[in-house]
Amino acid sequence: MAIAELIDIKGEKIGEVEIKDEIFNCEIKPYLIHDVVTMQLANRRSGTASTKTRKDVRGGGKKPFKQKGTGRARQGTSRSPLHPGGGTIFGPHPRDYHYLVPKKVRRSALRSALTVRYTGSNLRILDKLELSEISTKSFSAIIKTLSLKKPLFVIDRKDETIEKSARNIPYVKILRTEGLNVYDVIKHENLIFTLDALRKIEEVLV
């Protein structure tokens, strides 16, 4: 079992906790992390880009000029892609970019990402994360006290006080355990679990 420090929101060490090697100290598989992040980014694409082909552009029913005698190349419509205002050749059309990789691959990639954060000393574990009221200023003070940079906080349940206090702070994100994903773990430099969230993640990923 690996060991991690347990701290409070003032950054003071109050103990140590055992964390499972199978999740936080396993073999790192960069290719799986790449596959899952690529999938997540593809699934976020709206796929709504659209262009008009020559059949969709208005006008062009009349032949622009006679077939012969002008010395120019023959043309049948001014809506040809060769003309200004004409249709687009091979342009994008609405499509679905969504796809999935196997569940085992996603879990293995998440374990690898968590190991990257633990072995890089960018993982913190808080005994609890609580505020008496919604306050961006108070939450910013916690981040400053813990010397965090682009932090991702993982909590075990819905907490509007915490979530609303953090939502206007740049590069700070709050996730519940069920939303933990590879992309956000890799994107954010510091990963902070509450102790209850840590135990929930261990139950799911072991």
Q: Could you list some keywords that capture this structure?
A:
7 helices, alpha/beta, 2 domains, Ribosomal Protein L4, Chain: A, six-stranded mixed beta sheet, 33% helix, 206 residues, elongated
Structural write-up:
The chain is of the alpha/beta class. The protein has 2 domains: 153 residues, 3-Layer(aba) Sandwich (Ribosomal Protein L4, Chain: A), CATH 3.40.1370.10; 50 residues, no CATH class. The protein contains 7 helices and 6 strands. Strand 1 and strand 2 form a beta hairpin.
**Biggest sheet overview:** 6 strands, mixed
Order of helices and strands: EEHHHEHEHEHEH
Rg calculated over all Cα atoms: 27 Å
CATH superfamily heading of the largest domain? Ribosomal protein L4/L1
Percent strand = 15-25%
Count of discrete structural domains: 2
State the name of the first-level CATH class of the largest domain: Alpha Beta
Question: Please, what is the average pLDDT?
Answer: 94
Helix content, binned percent: 25-40%
CATH architecture of the largest domain: 3-Layer(aba) Sandwich
The counted number of beta strands is 6
Write a compact overview of the structure shown.
The protein is an alpha/beta fold and 206 residues long.
Q: How are the SSEs ordered, and which strands pair?
A:
Elements: E1 2-7, E2 13-19, H1 21-24, H2 30-43, H3 103-119, E3 123-126, H4 136-145, E4 151-155, H5 160-166, E5 173-176, H6 182-187, E6 190-194, H7 195-205
Parallel strand pairs: 1-3, 3-6, 4-5, 4-6
Antiparallel strand pairs: 1-2
